[in-house]
Amino acid sequence: MEEEKLFDEDTCRICGCTWENACPGGCYWVEEDLCSQCVKYAGTDVDPNTQNS
User: Fold this and answer.
1) DSSP β-ladder status, 34-35 and 29-31
2) Cα distance between residue 2 and residue 15, in whole Å
3) Averaged over 24-48, what is the pLDDT?
4) pTM of the model
C-alpha cells in the first residue's frame, strides 16, 4: 500500500527535481514549477536529462 503524502512537494515540470532532491550542482525555483537549471529548456522539445553540460 502506498503511503499518503502529507503535502505536495514542488516539482520541476521539466526535470522532476524537488526542494529536497535538487539538480546536480544545485538549482533554485524561477517559477512555481520550473527550476533554474531548466529555464533554457522551457518551451523546447529538449530533454535536459540527455544533454551534456
Assistant:
1) antiparallel
2) 23
3) 88
4) 0.68
